[in-house]
TrEMBL record:
Residues 355-365 have a biased composition (Basic and acidic residues). The gene is LOC100783783. Coiled coil: none annotated. One of its GO terms (molecular function) is histone binding. It is found in: Cytoplasm; Nucleus. The lineage of its organism: Eukaryota, Viridiplantae, Streptophyta, Embryophyta, Tracheophyta. Its main location: cytoplasm. PANTHER family: TESTIS-SPECIFIC Y-ENCODED PROTEIN (PTHR11875). It comes from the Eukaryota. Belongs to the nucleosome assembly protein (NAP) family. One of its GO terms (cellular component) is chromatin. Residues 296-365 are annotated as: Disordered. Keywords: Chaperone, Cytoplasm, Nucleus. It comes from Glycine max. GO terms for biological process: double-strand break repair via homologous recombination; nucleosome assembly; somatic cell DNA recombination. This is Nucleosome assembly protein.
């Protein structure tokens, strides 16, 4: 069972981040670490002198390891920044070809048959739409109604942000009949990028043209017979759309008490939201052409098969353990998992990034 005193105070982190005061955050962490060091010193006092000396030697080794690891993380960040710069000219050329800014040598002279929709168009029509639809995670988010708007998507970029830590996605759109924005952004604020632990996500408010909102449906019902009101009754209802991505789940204040069901639902929504964002950042942007052609799908499925094989081994081990446990132990484990998830959202409003379930689909009446 985890001791709450051994966890870094979430309220200290939250206040520091909300005020965007890095100094306060560092001081809060130092204070907590010092208190933890004092608590763990009691362990050393219980050891015999010889064992204590050996443990002290091990701590010195650990300290040297941590110093080397700190250098590794600095070099890793610098290396990532270096290669991001090397990728940029390639991304720029990809943008120019996809959007018909430049023409590939010999392409204009080809006399192959073209569909009526693509005839006369430059570049690669619906490039980003088809790339995303070939990815299982994103395909589930894109409805048929979304496709018309996503055909105007010209480019997707991502960049790292430092204060607070995290990353930003930018979606560049051509002039279209759905909304007036030319750029839609989604920013992820992280507590720890290595874990990673998501604090919150912020999306652009989409400026929809009248009657073009893809995240809502207007339902019309005929009035009942004999009703004085002869006009149809209209009702606006939220529905599933890729563009809900830009309106992420709202994290309640720390002092708001929510029940376990709501906490678990929020946890799942935040995990799913991060999964979509990280998929776009790590898979779609760097390998967009392979997703467009479908080549990346085969590689992705191969990785899934490897994961399934590893999972089967784990399941076999778990089955052996389960035979030794009684039903009461299983129920206690489930209760423990639920309480941990609930506590994570209820106390901090933050989610461990990972896979999550989708909210119920909005259906037309």
């Amino acid at each position: 069972m985890t001791n709450n005193n051994d966890n870094i105070a979430v309220t200290d982190l939250t206040s520091a981040l909300n005020e965007e005061n890095r100094a306060d955050l560092v001081n809060a962490l130092k204070s907590k670490i010092q208190s933890l060091a004092g608590a763990h010193s009691d362990v050393l006092e219980t050891l015999s002198p010889n064992v204590r000396k050996r443990v002290e030697s091990l701590r010195e080794i650990q300290g040297k390891h941590d110093e080397i690891e700190a250098d590794f993380l600095k070099e890793k960040e610098a290396l990532e920044a270096k290669y991001q710069k090397l990728y940029q000219p390639l991304y720029t050329k990809r943008y120019e070809i996809v959007n018909g800014v430049i023409e590939v040598e010999g392409a204009a002279n080809e006399t192959t048959d073209e569909s009526e929709e693509d005839k006369g168009k430059k570049g690669v029509p619906s490039f980003w739409l088809n790339a995303m639809k070939n990815n299982d995670v994103l395909a589930e988010e894109i409805s048929e109604r979304d496709e018309g708007a996503l055909k105007f998507l010209k480019d997707i970029k991502w960049s790292r942000i430092e204060n607070p830590k995290g990353f930003k996605l930018e979606f560049f759109f051509d002039t279209n009949p759905y909304f007036s924005n030319t750029i839609l952004t989604k920013t992820y604020h992280m507590i720890d990028e290595d874990e990673p632990i998501l604090e919150k996500a912020i999306g652009t408010e989409i400026e929809w043209y009248p009657g073009k909102c893809l995240t809502q449906k207007v339902l019309k019902k005929k009035p009942k017979k004999g009703s004085k009101n002869a006009k149809p009754i209209t009702k606006t209802e939220s529905c599933e759309s890729f563009f809900n991505f830009f309106k992420p789940p709202e994290v309640p204040e720390d002092d708001v008490d929510i029940d376990e069901d709501l906490a678990e639902e929020l946890q799942n929504q935040m995990e799913q939201d991060y999964d979509i964002g990280s998929t776009i950042r790590d898979k779609i942007i760097p390998h967009a052409v392979s997703w467009f052609t479908g080549e990346a799908v085969e590689g992705d499925e191969f990785e899934d098969l490897e994961d399934d094989e590893d999972g089967d081994d784990d399941e076999d081990d778990e089955e052996e353990d389960e035979d030794e446990d009684d039903d009461d132990g299983d129920e206690e484990e489930e209760d423990s998992k639920t309480k941990k998830k609930s506590s994570a959202v209820k106390k901090s409003g933050r989610a461990q990034a990972g896979d999550g379930e989708r909210p119920p689909e909005c259906k037309q009446q």
